[in-house]
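User: quick one, fold this
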Amino acid sequence: MSAMPFFNLTDEAEFNSAHHVENILSTYPEADFTVACWEPGQKSSDHCHPEAIETYFCFSGGGVMKVDDQEVAIIPGAFIVHPLGEFHQYVNGPERTLLFRVRSGPDKRAVNR
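Assistant:
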């Protein structure tokens, strides 16, 4: 990989009607970079990353991010950061959605609630 990787999110999108797709574009020891592709109504598990900060940017589409009893509308241009260990769940809205995700930390694994 070159010193400056370049990606076009729409070119990297891959959709699946059975489940959302996380296409990891680039991985480093400190972080990974992903385009997450969601069909209408798909949702993630309620999970956290105990040793990683997870950041999402909505490129297109949108839905709702849930954290405990809070819900935040995710629309194109929205940006959300989940600190270490914060449980969260994404529920996609009525159209296809592209989210750009960065996970940074020594261990990026998820733990389901």
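User: anything notable?
Assistant: Residues 61 and 97 are 4 Å apart (CA to CA).
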